[in-house]
Design brief:
CoiA-like_N; Competence protein CoiA; 8 helices; nine-stranded mixed β-sheet; Trna Endonuclease, Chain: A, domain 1; single chain; binds zinc ion; CoiA_nuc; alpha+beta
Amino acid sequence: MFIAHDETGGNVTASEAVKNRKYFCPVCLERVVLKSGNVKTPHFSHHRIVDCIRHLYKKESLAHLSAKHELYLSLNKNHTAAMEYYLPEIEQIPDLLVGKRAIEIQYSPISPMLIIERSKGYRTLGMDVIWVLDETALRINGPHVIPTHFQLSTQFHHALFTYQDRNRQLKKWTLHHHIGTGRWLFHVEGMDAEALMLDHEVMTRQMHQMNRQDIKRLIQHERRQKSRLNPTLTYIYQLGLNPADLPKHLLYITESERWIMNSPLEWKLYLMFALERGSLTIEGFRHFIRLREIQGAPQSEQVIHRLLGDYKTLYNSQ
Ligand SMILES: [Zn+2]
């Protein structure tokens, strides 16, 4: 943390603070220690983070602190950014707050549920939040990015935002389509801190047609699961399909698929099979679909109905 109270109750930033004076946490009012000298970025720290009520302050690595400091300085050129501003109504302390936008630097992985909960907190105050991740923790494999569930849960208008401390580079990773096995097609661009204040509106994407390589990877992945009840392989077998020559409507990835974990083949095969047998129920389909935990995602009912609509469109257009 960078802001603490001094003995008179006034706010002091860590760079103004002086060794051997007493400083206090603005939230729990317990003593905090000034860390300066050997560290690159002076900051305050609780004796033990668990001492602070409700763990409002995050565990902050030095990388986290330096990212917060850099972004604060950059944003303050054109805006009035507040650092560590305590919002008592929701008991949250965004790293940075500029107008109605919170910026949260989240380098350590936390549960998607927590990301969703905290993002909701901001929304109840009419704010939104951009989560900034550690770029070095983002896994890239050739033309694909393979984000963890935690990273995915932070999506803001279909994009992930990262910071790289070494070169002070912010990046925006727009996630286009999930092509199965955790891989996403993406577009990455560098951006300056100022772009954190933009709307980042979503452009509607075309459907993506999977190529032979994509299909092969998916099938191989399912075979490696070694489960006799593997839905993809079971439906392909039961429907008498040839994995190397699947019906065309199974090969397209639609926009609504971003909200589910089922592979692009799996949920379409489920519908194809259930429709052929005349056994499709919304209830059954809902149980089959595994929703992702993403902040700001549409309601589950909406996703289910969009998927059904997508399948119908694909089926009718083949
Ligand atoms: Zn505290």
